[in-house]
Amino acid sequence: MQYKQPTYVQAAILDWAGTVVDFGSFAPTQIFVEAFAEFGVAVSLEEARGPMGMGKWDHIRTLCNLDQIGERYRAAFGRLPSDDDVTAIYERFMPLQIEKIALHSALIPGALEAIAALRDKGLKIGSCSGYPAVVMARVIELARKNGYVADHVVATDEVPNGRPYPAQALANVIALGINDVAACVKVDDTWPGILEGRSAGMWTVALTCSGNALGLTYEQYKALPSDRLAEERARISTMFAPSRPHYLIDTIAELPEVIDDINARLARGETPQGC
User: Fold this and answer.
1) Are the C-beta atoms of residues 64 and 85 closer than 8 Å to each other?
2) According to the model, what pLDDT value does residue 55 have?
3) Beta strand residue intervals within 72-202, DSSP E
4) Do 246 and 200 meet the contact criterion of CB atoms below 8 Å apart?
5) 256 forms bridges with which residues in the sheet?
6) What DSSP string runs through 60-91?
7) Active-site residues: which are they?
8) Is the bond preceding residue 109 a cis peptide, omega within 30 degrees?
9) What is the pLDDT of residue 84?
10) Which helix or strand (DSSP H or E) is residue 184 part of?
11) How many domains, in total, are found in the chain?
12) Which residues form the active site (predicted)?
């Protein structure tokens, strides 16, 4: 049997916060700040955003590994944070996240229309998140009430390794019955999510304005002067560059046009691994 390269996109694998829901990705970042504060350790919103996209325990571990945060922890407890200390912060983070997730559950403007357009093109909709399953259960429930239901969801604790490893994206491929990773598009607002897609052999689309990188509400984003928005896009593009996304767009609303372009590239024999 001879290998046949796919000629059209079969599935989009979408992130959640900052991609489909929660413009600006405020739900996780604000709770990281609050969880650390309960241990007497100050963490800024900017610091909390740094490792966004990872599983939440790994996110906290990465924050604790930062020199400045480690020293603040040492000042409070007389030692650098161990893995047990990270787990203690994580266990405080979790109930706070579940309690407050509804405050940041609104769908991103244009998301429903874009996803409907993808379905009209024959795509299946997979999804994955840095949230664990217990939080995702609440996120999925709230999204359903707002009209969004993915065909499959993979939480970070449902695979051996979360982002930037490819396991969550590949779990979607298996569950959705996709026959080639080159027929998949991974869409995310964080560099770990883009690395996930790249490592899985997929096309990747980075979102520059709806999520963690810009970190503004939709109203603040729309109010940005054109020159400031251009500066922010350039900054965010530089931030994403090492993860090598195939495309950068402002929000998911622009995704249907990207799918058309990828279909044209696939028809010409291009592959995501080759570019």
Assistant:
1) yes
2) 85
3) 124-127, 184-188
4) no
5) none
6) HHHHHHSHHHHHHHHHHHSS---HHHHHHHHH
7) 15, 56
8) no
9) 96
10) strand 184-188
11) 2
12) 15 (nucleophile), 56 (schiff-base intermediate with substrate)
CA 105-257-221 angle, to 5 degrees, is: 45
CATH code of 65's domain: 1.10.150.240
Q: Which residue reads 């229309």 in tokens?
A: 113
Backbone angles phi, psi at 21, to 5 degrees: -125, 165
Query: Is the dihedral angle over the CA atoms 208, 212, 218, 224 positive or is it negative?
Result: negative
Q: Which among 181, 185, 209 is positioned nearest to 127, based on CA atoms?
A: 185
Q: Do the annotations mark residue 17 as ligand-binding? A: yes
Range of the domain at 122: 11-26+104-274
C-alpha distance across the termini of the chain, in Å: 26
Q: Does 58 count as an annotated binding residue?
A: no
Encode pLDDT of 45-56 as tens digits: 889 988 888 889
Pair of tokens at residue 80: 């650098």
Q: Is 102 annotated as a binding residue?
A: no
Tokens of 204: 């990747």
Does residue 207 share a domain with residue 172? yes
pLDDT tens-digit map of 97-114: 888 888 889 999 999 999
Query: Nearest 5°: CA angle at 75, between 29 and 27?
Result: 10
Domain boundary, last residue among 63, 88, 103: 103
Which of these, 96, 88, 74, 117, lies nearest to 28 by C-alpha position? Answer: 96
Q: Are residues 91 and 118 in the same domain?
A: no
Q: Single out the residue of 260, 251, 275 nearest to residue 113, CA to CA.
A: 251
Predicted pLDDT of residue 28: 81
pLDDT at 52: 80
Report the C-alpha gap between 244 and 139 in whole angstroms: 29
Residues facing 205 on adjacent strands: 187, 247
Q: Is residue 4 part of a domain?
A: no
What is d(CA 19, CA 253) in angstroms, rounded to the nearest whole number?
A: 10
**CATH code, 151:** 3.40.50.1000
